[in-house]
Amino acid sequence: MIRLALTAIYVAIFLVGTIPLMIVCAVMRKFNPSGADKLANATVMWGFRSVSHVCGIKLEVRGLEKVPEDGALLYVGNHRSLFDIVVGYPLCKCPTGVIAKKSTRKIPLLNIWMILLRCLFLDRNNTKKGLQVILKAIEMVKTGTSILIFPEGTRNKDIDSDKLLPMHNGSFKIATKGNVLIQPMAIVGTDHIMKKHLMKGSFVIVQFCDPVDPKSLDRETLKNIGGYVGGIIEKAYAEIKADWSPTGH
Prior knowledge:
Elements: H1 2-17, H2 19-31, H3 33-55, E1 57-62, E2 73-77, H4 84-88, E3 96-101, H5 110-116, E4 120-122, H6 127-142, E5 146-149, H7 173-178, E6 181-188, E7 194-195, E8 198-199, E9 202-208, H8 219-223, H9 225-241
Parallel strand pairs: 1-9, 2-5, 2-6, 3-4, 3-5
Antiparallel strand pairs: 6-9, 7-8
Helix pairs in contact: 1-3, 2-3
């Protein structure tokens, strides 16, 4: 309970304390967009790394050398916890936006940082607006902004299962229509950070898999590209989970 309280206090201090930087980023965006992106990314990445420390997260990153250095990417991860973005986003290169659920736009101050990070808000109950978000993301990757997405659509709450929920094929149009590589990432351990409103921390592993070039896939695979990429992540997840423990020992 103490760790949870400290985390809540830290997040509140961070959001209020960075209001001046929000204003600077908003002004910079008018005459120096790339500089604004770098400042926004650096601030939020520092915030995420700091809150990870407060939460008791011990992070190990594998396969970072597999991530292409040039060009925008569609980062695709499995979704087990709200902390997936906390550990995953700081590993993405600048600039990177996130496709997040619509409700996060209602969180004061956090929503401003998300807008400054070029995040997109998805309404899962509105197909038309959902398509508009995907089209916007396609335009973003075409102009050099990477996108981080969790295409399972909702969190898999079965912590004992190594299986992923089905990944929505529509999300992958960002890569196929935007002509960018897909960067799969398996995230293990975030679902153990907080249980029953108690924050205990956890050992978390992020495994970057080999990038996927949609242009190299045959027509049948492209029809179920969500299943194909999901299979890659699911295999990596299961292999890591086989000898993983919350304490890292």
